[in-house]
TrEMBL record:
Species classification: Bacteria, Bacillati, Bacillota, Bacilli, Lactobacillales
Pfam families xrefs: HATPase_c_4, HTH_24, SLFN_AlbA_2
Name by which UniProt lists this protein: Putative DNA binding domain-containing protein
Coiled-coil stretches noted in the UniProt entry, renumbered to this chain: none
Segments forming domain Schlafen AlbA-2: 3-118
Organism this protein belongs to: Aerococcus urinae
Length: 465
C-alpha cells in the first residue's frame, strides 16, 4: 500500500519521538493510519529484531509528547515471512474535530498528501479557527434510523471496502457514520434513500441554457432543468449522465497533424468539479444548493459555503483540507475523490491538453464557490467542417516539423496565437517562437496582424481559405 493522505509506513528503527509528528499530522487533517515495520521501499522488515523499538515505546512517546491527546488506537498485525513469525504495529488516528493537536514544544503538523508538514505561525492560526467549529457532518440525526438507509448502496460501499461479511451497523460505526447508536448527518447524506427529507438543501440542479447569458421573463432560455436529490453517490451518477447528454463534439487537431473527435470539455475536468462540489460543500448552509449551469460557451459549477479558513483561491491547488472528511473518505472508496488536490491540479492539466483556458475559481459571494470551464466554442471547428480532410493531408506530410504542428494545433482550436503563447507551447525562447511563426507566414499558412514589429498586441491567425 502506498503512502498517502490517510496512510504512512515506517521502519521500527524510527525513533518514537519521530513518530509523534505523523500522529499529530493525521489528527489535524482527516485521520489516518501509521504502520510500523515497513521500510520506505515497501519491504516488510517487521519489528522482531535487535534495534527495533517496541509498540510500548511508541505509545509512551505519543502519551508524553503530544498536547491535546488525539484519539489513537493500537493493534498488532501478525504474519509469517520465510517461516519466521513477525508482526507490524498499526496505529490508527482519528481526526481531531474540535481542538488543534500540538507537540509538547508547540509544533503543529498537518497531513498533506504523503507528507506530514510542519505548519507556520499563520497556518497554525488558520487551523485553530477551523477547529473552533464541530464538523456538521458528525452531528447526530436523532429522528433517523438505519431503516432510512439504502441497503443496496450500503452493500456497494461494503464491497468497495472488502468487508461484505460485516453488518451494516459494524461498518457504519467503524467509519464514523453511526455514533452513540445514532446516525450522523454524513450517513444520511451518503446513504439515505431520501436525504432531502432531513436536509432539503442536499440536492443538485442541472440547467442547460440556450446561448451565453441567463435570460428572464419572456426571453427565458432554459432548455433543460433537472434536479437530483438522492444520496450523494446517486447524485454524482445522475449529474454525470445529465451533463454527458448535453455535450457537443468538436474536431481537434492533434500534434501529429491528424484530426480527432473530442468532447466539448475534457470529461475529467467537469466530472471532478461535480464530485468536489458534492463532497466539500457546506451542508450546514440551508439556503442554497449545488447548481450546474451549462451555456454555449462555458460550464459553471456553483457550490454553497465559504472556503475553509486554511484554503484560499490562491492556494487551493496545493492545499488539502476537507470540510466533510467522512464523506470525502467514503467517496475515495467509491473511486471518485483524489488525494492532495490531485483532482484540482488535473483539471488544470486536462484543460491545457485540450488547448482551453485555465479553469477559473471564484467566490461570487463570501458563502459560495464557483468553478467556470470555458470551451472556446466560437473559435473551435465543429465536426461538419468540409475542409478537415484536405488540411489533415497537408499536415501529415514532411512540410511541417513537430513544433510547427504544435503551433498549428493550438491555432486550430483557439483562432489566434501570440509569440509568448507559442514559446510556451514549444517550450523554447521567444526568439525561436517568433522565427517559427514567421516561417509559417512565409509558407502562406499564417497571417500576421499588427501595426509594427514592436506592436505589443500583434498576433497570428490561420489564413482563411
Amino acid at each position: 500500500m502506498h503512502e498517502g493522505q490517510y496512510f504512512d509506513r515506517k521502519s521500527a528503527r524510527m525513533k518514537p519521538k519521530d513518530a509523534v509528528k505523523h500522529i499529530i499530522a493525521f489528527a489535524n487533517a482527516d485521520g489516518g493510519s501509521l504502520v510500523i515495520g515497513i521500510e520506505d521501499n515497501g519491504d516488510l522488515s517487521g519489528t522482531n529484531y535487535q534495534g527495533a523499538h517496541t509498540l510500548e515505546d511508541y505509545k509512551l512517546a505519543i502519551q508524553q509528547d503530544i498536547l491535546g491527546q488525539p484519539c489513537v488506537s493500537y493493534e498488532y498485525i501478525d504474519y509469517l515471512m520465510e517461516g519466521q513469525e513477525d508482526r507490524l504495529f498499526l496505529i490508527r488516528v482519528e481526526l481531531s474535530v474540535d481542538r488543534l493537536i500540538k507537540s509538547r514544544n508547540e509544533e503543529v503538523y498537518l497531513r498533506i498528501g504523503d507528507k506530514s508538514v510542519k505548519q507556520t505561525y499563520s497556518q497554525i492560526r488558520q487551523l485553530e479557527y477551523a477547529k473552533g467549529e464541530r464538523l456538521f457532518e458528525d452531528n447526530l440525526v436523532a429522528e433517523a434510523n438505519i431503516t432510512d438507509l439504502d441497503e443496496q448502496l450500503l452493500n456497494e460501499y461494503k464491497r468497495h471496502l472488502n468487508c461484505s461479511d460485516l453488518s451494516h451497523r459494524q461498518v457504519l460505526e467503524a467509519r464514523g457514520f453511526m455514533q452513540q447508536g445514532q446516525l450522523t448527518v454524513a450517513a444520511i447524506l451518503m446513504f439515505a434513500e431520501n436525504p432531502s427529507y432531513y436536509f432539503p438543501q442536499a440536492r443538485l440542479r442541472f440547467l442547460r441554457y440556450e446561448g451565453a447569458r441567463r435570460e428572464t421573463g419572456v426571453r427565458m432560455n432554459i432548455v433543460k432543468d433537472q434536479t437530483f436529490d438522492g444520496p450523494i453517490p446517486e447524485i454524482i451518477r445522475q449529474a454525470q449522465v445529465a451533463v454527458n447528454a448535453q455535450l457537443r463534439e468538436f474536431q481537434f487537431l492533434g500534434e501529429d497533424g491528424r484530426f480527432k473527435i473530442v468532447p466539448e470539455y475534457p470529461e475529467f475536468a467537469w466530472f471532478e468539479g461535480i464530485v468536489n462540489a458534492v463532497a466539500h460543500r457546506d451542508y450546514s448552509f440551508r439556503g442554497d444548493y449545488i447548481r450546474i449551469s451549462m451555456f454555449d460557451d462555458r460550464l459553471e459549477i456553483f457550490s454553497p459555503g465559504s472556503l475553509p479558513n486554511i484554503v484560499t483561491l490562491d492556494n487551493m491547488r496545493y492545499t488539502r483540507y476537507a470540510r466533510n472528511p467522512r464523506i470525502a473518505r467514503a467517496l475515495v472508496s467509491f473511486g471518485w475523490v483524489r488525494e492532495l488536490n490531485e483532482g484540482v491540479n488535473r483539471i488544470y492539466d486536462e484543460m491545457a491538453d485540450f488547448y482551453l483556458n485555465e479553469p477559473e475559481y471564484s467566490q461570487p459571494h463570501p458563502h459560495a464557490l464557483l468553478l467556470k470551464l470555458e470551451n472556446n466554442y466560437l473559435s473551435r471547428q465543429m465536426r461538419m467542417d468540409d475542409r478537415v480532410g484536405d488540411l489533415e493531408k497537408k499536415l501529415i506530410t514532411d512540410e511541417f516539423n513537430e513544433n510547427e504542428r504544435k503551433i498549428l494545433a493550438y491555432l486550430y482550436g483557439n483562432g489566434r496565437i501570440t509569440v509568448k503563447k507559442a514559446s510556451e507551447i514549444i517550450e523554447m525562447s521567444d526568439a525561436t517562437a517568433r522565427k517559427l511563426l514567421r516561417a509559417l507566414v512565409d509558407k502562406e499558412v499564417l497571417c500576421w496582424h499588427g501595426n509594427s514589429k514592436r506592436d505589443p498586441r500583434q498576433y497570428y491567425t490561420l489564413i482563411s481559405e
